[in-house]
């Protein structure tokens, strides 16, 4: 039986070669033998609103049963963290993988109030066996300081600091695939 992976994409256009599309295609190719990748279209990705994304995420989570792996890319990661810290979750989360996610409220450029996490969000997360954080050191879209802020709040997380300036991971992310398969 294949393991279930729920992937929540980034904000912005999600067409071919845009947003998370190439990363999703890479994961589908690399994981298809043993994993079922669920990649819902999130509402209005070019003008995201937390309530809309929360509602869609809730619908997707309610379709799932048993043990799952969750991946959030950029905005998708911050939405996953906010949702899981504010809502009861009946699933067993085997692993949570957060890629290049903004830490809303951290600095002047990242101030969408809908997405700001409560100060003690980490204490309200359900038990998650494995947490991984990925971020490029020289990233231009979401500065590396956001990764460092999450690392402080989630000291149990395994940190993957990626060389370079990738945000969309168009060519994939070998470390992510290895970590998923290593669970």
Automatic annotation (TrEMBL):
It comes from Gracilibacillus salinarum. Keywords: Hydrolase. GO terms for molecular function: hydrolase activity. It comes from the Bacteria. SUPFAM superfamilies: alpha/beta-Hydrolases. InterPro entries: AB_hydrolase_fold, RBBP9/YdeN. It holds the Pfam family Ser_hydrolase. This is Alpha/beta hydrolase.
């Amino acid at each position: 039986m294949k393991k279930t992976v729920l992937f929540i994409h980034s904000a912005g256009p999600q067409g071919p070669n845009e947003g998370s599309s190439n990363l999703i295609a890479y994961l589908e190719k690399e994981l298809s033998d043993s994993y079922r990748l669920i990649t819902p279209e999130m509402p209005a990705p070019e003008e995201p609103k937390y309530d809309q994304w929360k509602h869609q995420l809730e619908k997707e989570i309610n379709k799932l049963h048993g043990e799952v792996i969750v991946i959030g890319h950029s905005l998708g990661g911050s939405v996953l963290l906010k949702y899981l810290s504010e809502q009861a979750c009946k699933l067993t989360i085997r692993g949570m993988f957060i890629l290049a996610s903004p830490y809303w409220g951290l600095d002047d450029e990242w101030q969408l109030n809908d997405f700001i996490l409560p100060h003690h969000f980490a204490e309200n997360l359900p038990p998650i066996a494995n947490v991984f954080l990925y971020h490029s050191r020289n990233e231009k879209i979401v500065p590396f300081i956001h990764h460092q802020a999450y690392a402080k709040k989630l000291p149990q997380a395994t940190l993957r600091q990626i060389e370079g300036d990738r945000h969309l991971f168009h060519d994939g992310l070998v470390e992510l695939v290895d970590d998923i398969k290593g669970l």
